[in-house]
Design brief:
With about 180 residues, the chain is of the alpha+beta class. Helix 2 runs antiparallel to helix 4. The longest helix is centred in the first third of the chain and has 45 residues. The chain is elongated.
Length: about 180
């Protein structure tokens, strides 16, 4: 009948209770910590890309790109130098298009049928002075963690589509 004394002493012993509590909490804690880091990295990438598009589009709006003989490769290089902190530009596609008025701007995302990013039909037309120009940049951002919750990844291969666009009227740079 000594077994009851053994179990009673085992129940009263609190050595290792902290380790057991940590083991129960550690999994969800590190999961949420890594999720927070992933979301912060995506927001940082979105901010960097947005800034790069606005700064690079300014070259078109002021006529510096057109006046300097710039083309699609020059514009791509301008954007890439501004996002090289977070991206390698291999997963970036862009479009620069001219529209008649602000009411008829209806761009479609360059997403292929399989859900991947496809920039095959994107064009480059920076326009002339006074033209309405749309500049769009799409980037397939590779996520750090495997997609543990489907809300972060929206492209195949554990990637997040980041899109930045700006619409403006070119300044009268011909004068």
């Amino acid at each position: 009948m000594r077994k009851t004394g053994f179990f009673r002493s085992f129940r009263k012993n609190s050595d290792g209770a902290t380790a057991v509590e940590f083991a129960l909490i550690a999994g969800p804690f590190f999961f949420f910590l890594m999720a927070l880091i992933e979301v912060a990295a995506v927001f940082f990438a979105e901010t960097v890309i947005e800034n790069a598009v606005l700064e690079s589009a300014r070259l078109i709006r002021t006529g510096q790109l057109q006046g300097g003989g710039g083309d699609a490769a020059t514009f791509r290089d301008e954007v890439c130098t501004r996002i090289d902190v977070i991206a390698d530009c291999d997963s970036m596609v862009f479009e620069v298009a001219v529209f008649e008025d602000f009411d008829n701007i209806n761009p479609t995302p360059p997403i292929a049928e399989d859900g991947s990013l496809n920039g095959g039909n994107m064009g480059f037309d920076p326009g002339d002075a006074g033209d309405i120009v749309l500049v769009r940049v799409y980037y397939a951002y590779p996520l750090i963690l495997p997609n543990m919750f489907g809300a972060v990844s929206n492209l195949p291969k554990n990637q997040r589509l980041i899109m930045s666009a700006t619409v403006f009227r070119n300044e009268p740079f011909d004068d």
